[in-house]
């Protein structure tokens, strides 16, 4: 059983970024997206891929709804003291590195750095956690009680210069990729030289699949080699937070603005302020934006926004509960324990 116990019971029970230099109390209309001219923006099509799959596959949609219902039951049980949230789960991680040039063959040291970043971010021991504004400190997650352990690294050279996210060729040996290592027991991360959208355009940092895909051959994360670890990674996404963000999706966290680019929708965590859409770059707190005519201070420093790596520092308490529900004994990713 891959877990650390700090108490009695284990939990039981359902992709990436840019802002102009905004001044304090700057209010942005609902339909206006902050942007920096010419800056590289975080890009993660996890939500779009999910929406397409749920629309095409009614059984997958029902599974997603069931996971969400179980997650809400888990949340309610925690509220009334039926579950003791005192167990830390360790997730086995397999890196599958597919490279063309030697520079794209990320080193063992960078992979180790990435695991360290995950453990710090999910354990709330990240050195920049003091950046959480005082207004959000009461709802900060603290230790999510999920850890990550590298169990294998697979490597393969391929002449391809890019991999389309909608084809998943990087995940099949028959198409030049690397087959997953038991997706029921391991979180697989494929590292590639370039992620292309369905039109063949580059620019995606990474993406991941939600828990309703647990057990499927394609389940896991795909990350551009430029965004693994810290040493040699590409600024402004050079602190390993792209993987932190995508693991959030893998553990059932939507973006703060909900599952649609329309924004102002629920992310199922009532302690994250409603958001009209992503924030980019390195915003100045407080940053106010409008949903439904109501101005709210944004939690842009949350790992599930689209800001640069150095501005991401926290999960919320409700996000912690959602992730715990996923890896709990009866959760959709219980096999990772």
From TrEMBL:
<keyword id="KW-0732">Signal</keyword>
<keyword id="KW-0479">Metal-binding</keyword>
<dbReference type="GO" id="GO:0008237">
    <property type="term" value="F:metallopeptidase activity"/>
</dbReference>
<keyword id="KW-1015">Disulfide bond</keyword>
<comment type="similarity">
    <text>Belongs to the peptidase M43B family.</text>
</comment>
<keyword id="KW-0378">Hydrolase</keyword>
<dbReference type="InterPro" id="IPR008754">
    <property type="entry name" value="Peptidase_M43"/>
</dbReference>
<dbReference type="Pfam" id="PF05572">
    <property type="entry name" value="Peptidase_M43"/>
</dbReference>
<keyword id="KW-0862">Zinc</keyword>
<feature type="domain" description="Peptidase M43 pregnancy-associated plasma-A">
    <location>
        <begin position="180"/>
        <end position="328"/>
    </location>
</feature>
<protein>
    <submittedName>
        <fullName>Pregnancy-associated plasma protein-A</fullName>
    </submittedName>
</protein>
<keyword id="KW-0645">Protease</keyword>
<dbReference type="InterPro" id="IPR024079">
    <property type="entry name" value="MetalloPept_cat_dom_sf"/>
</dbReference>
<dbReference type="GO" id="GO:0006508">
    <property type="term" value="P:proteolysis"/>
</dbReference>
<keyword id="KW-0482">Metalloprotease</keyword>
<feature type="signal peptide">
    <location>
        <begin position="1"/>
        <end position="19"/>
    </location>
</feature>
<dbReference type="GO" id="GO:0046872">
    <property type="term" value="F:metal ion binding"/>
</dbReference>
